[in-house]
Amino acid sequence: MEAIMRLGRTFVPPWLERWTEKHSSPLVVFLVALFLAVFLYGIVTTDNFLNLFNLKTIIRDAALVGIMGIGLTFVTLSGNFFLLSMKETAALCIIAFAMGMSNGWGFELSLLATMGVAVGAGVLQGLLIGLGGNPIVVTLGAAGVFIGIASWWSDNLVVSFRRPNDAEWLGTGSFLGLPNITIAFILIAVLAEVVLRYTRFGRQVYLIGANRAAGKATGHENLPMAIKVCTIASVCSGFVAVAFAAQISSAQANYFSSEFGSSGDMTILVIATVMVGGNSIMGGYGSTLRTSLGAVFIAVIDNMMVLRGFNSGPRVLAVGLMIVFSIIVFSLAQKGSRAQE
Amino acid sequence: MLASSPLFQRLKSKIVDEPDLTFAVLLAAMVYLYFAVTNELFLTHNTTFAIMERFAVLGLVALALTLCIIAGEIDLSIGSNAALSAVIIVRLTDSLGAFSALAVGVFISTLIGVIQGYFIAYLRVRAIVLTVGTLMLLRGVALFAAEEKTVMLTDFRVTDFIQTKMLVYFSPASLLVVAMFVLVGIFMRFTKYGREIYAIGGARKEALAAGINLKRPMIIVFAISGFCAGLGGAIIGLRSGTAQALGLQFLLLTGTVAAFIGGVSILGGKGGVVGAAIGTLTVNFLNTGLVFNVTPAFKVQLYLGVLLLIVIMFQTGSRLFDAQQRRWAVLQAVDLRKVALLEKKQRILDRQVPT
After folding, report:
1. ipTM of the complex
2. Is the pLDDT score of B107 beyond 90?
3. I want to staple B219 with a disulfide (CB 3.0 to 4.6 A). Which of A60, A194, B55, B117 is the partner?
4. Cβ contacts of B316 on chain A, cutoff 8 Å
């Protein structure tokens, strides 16, 4: 190990060496280097991977998960771990939207009603979390409630609405060669980053996440913050639900549970984007930019594996490995720092 | 006469000492009575047998989650672990025979638990962070092991064996689970290692300062959790003769509801095996009763979610109330001392005035 490190040192530029010494242990560097090697090998040897059309496909695949991940990042950054009810909130919203559309309410009114449902769901969870309930257990219960209501409301059937409708532009339209959902993803990512960096609310999120006691002492209670961040996450879920329903002009309560993407579970995939991006799960460190990159990265790996003809088993395995890998790398890199407590 | 008997006194002190357990017993009795009164089929030997059959699987999951929550952590990967074990056992039964397949599957699940516990203690991450990753990872492994298909048994003799009726209410599976409860209960209450688990949950920093090595209790907890998940998956898989890699995810919600009804606290260090058993029975009464009333599965999920939220609100509320009471008591004590001091001051002043 020592010999490999010495050999490696002759090839690395000094700034990189200084950076690695400051931030990480040799093991982390070794793991990251190994991963990069596999990644580069994949890029070079996979057919049809490096072309413009495929890159657009990747971003489009990343968009829906990425938007939800951006919403969840606010919750994670504010020190409230994550919500296990992301896909169930989306299920409730997709049924609400499809019900509105099939009753002929039109796009704007349905969207408004859906956002109302999302805000309600977010406020409910935020209230319970802010009062001192554990986020994991509260959202586990809320998940059961939301999916139950969604199935009950739709009688567990597919709710579809007729096809020339005024929601189609969001799902299937495109602008300047990019699908509208991709553009929405980019806009939301930029907006979230600006909010987190340059507004008072964004700095409060970081403060409460980094040190809850200090936040409380300076008058920033977790209760209003939990309500706000949970509402943001729910609204992002609701938006994804609307975009997804607009794409296929129908809705069912288990669209997000069973057959979404490769993994079969949207919530865990969303949590994966937050973790793979390298946000601190304990809060206070990270950004939505990291989450967006995490979403794109997962989409890249998934795309590569599809192009090489892998089944769903290895692809789910790869996402799981990425999560565990990023946990190990980031916690080793931070070992001994305050983020441990 | 009755009130003065020692048995009654002991019962009374037990009720006063453990309000959570009393609440759980009352809730279980209420749910049972409700269904027993409204449905004449509920109060039969066959229904009780069916409830015990459900207890076999759900009890194991609730036991595992209870132990994790006592240690101040939560194991989200329990459903995936159970599914993996079910897939492995159902696939291997034809070639190896049921007994060796069971041993292999449960061993793998326990090993996964040990590895998880080791990494949680070594990396000092919260268990939810790591187990959310292993949830996905194990699901991938299970898909891989099942080749993305539903695997099936060809020989149903094992299936018949584990469902044979014994002692009116039990089957081999539920007897095994009851024995498991007794063993884990003795372990948690009377051994040093069991007490360590309570210690790292209730007061982690103090426990570490007192010299407990975090790795040992963590590995034990997650090993038991993995063992329970593996055995639960095995029972489900062998009983139905089929296994799906993406199934069994409902176990997490149901098991958590049972654990919380049984009186664990999310802060850790509270609750026990008896509570887990009673919580599981409550959920089973509810489940079975709702099935008798022809309730669709999603409504059962809705009721369970509502139940979990109510229990959480109850717990949080009582915690806030306790904190307020304590603050009030402190202020009272301060006031009392202030009164005494003021009197003393007055006496001194009175003495000084004449001179």
Report:
1. 0.84
2. yes
3. B117
4. 128, 131-133
What pLDDT does A150 receive?
A: 92
Per-residue pLDDT reduced to its tens digit, B164-193: 777 778 888 888 999 999 999 999 989 999
Closest chain B residue to A341, measured at CA: B124
**How close, in Å, is residue A313 to chain B by CA atoms?**
5
Is residue A72, in this structure, part of any structural domain at all? Answer: yes
What are the CA-CA distances from residue B253 to residues B25, B77, B305 (Å)? 21, 12, 8
User: Which one is predicted more confidently, A170 or B333?
Assistant: B333
User: Which chain B residue is nearest to residue A331, measuring alpha carbons?
Assistant: B123
Are the Cβ atoms of B320 and A131 closer than 8 angstroms? Answer: yes
Residue A175 backbone dihedrals phi, psi, to 5 degrees: -140, 125
Q: What is the 3-state secondary structure (H, E, C) of A124-136?
A: HHHHHHHCCCCHH
Number of domains in chain B: 1
Rounded CA-CA distance A75/A139 in Å is 12
Counting Cα atoms < 13 Å in the Cβ hemisphere of B303 gives: 15
Residues 62-101 of B with CB under 8 A from A: 74, 76
Output the pLDDT for position A45: 79
A145, A312, A318 member nearest B309 (Cβ): A145
Helix-, strand-, coil-residue percentages of chain B, each rounded to 5:
80, 0, 20
Model pLDDT for residues A108-157, shown as the tens digit of each residue: 899 999 999 999 999 999 999 998 888 888 999 999 999 999 999 988 88
Look at B304 and A82 and tell me if their CB atoms are within 8 Å.
no
* Domain range for B259: 16-295
Angle at A52 between CA A48 and CA A57, to 5 degrees: 80
pLDDT tens digits for range B86-102: 999 999 988 888 889 99
Do residue A316 and residue B132 have CB atoms under 8 angstroms apart? no
**CA dist A187 → A161, A194, A197, A254, B349 (Å):** 28, 11, 15, 28, 75
Token pair 């850790």 is found at: B268
Q: What is the CATH number of the domain that holds A70?
A: 1.10.3470
The predicted model gives A220-243 an average pLDDT of 92
Which residue in A132, A134, A311 is closest to B148 by CB distance? A311
Residue from the list A82, A271, A313 with its beta carbon closest to the beta carbon of B140: A313
Write the pLDDT tens digit of every residue in B120-145: 988 888 888 899 889 989 988 998 88
The CATH number linked to B210 is 1.10.3470
Reference B259, options B58, B33, B114; nearest CA is B58
pLDDT confidence bin for A340, thresholds 50/70/90: very low
B111 assigned to some structural domain = yes
Q: Which of A134, A148, A268 sits opposite B136 (nearest CB)?
A: A268
Size of interface A-B (CB pairs under 8 A): 160
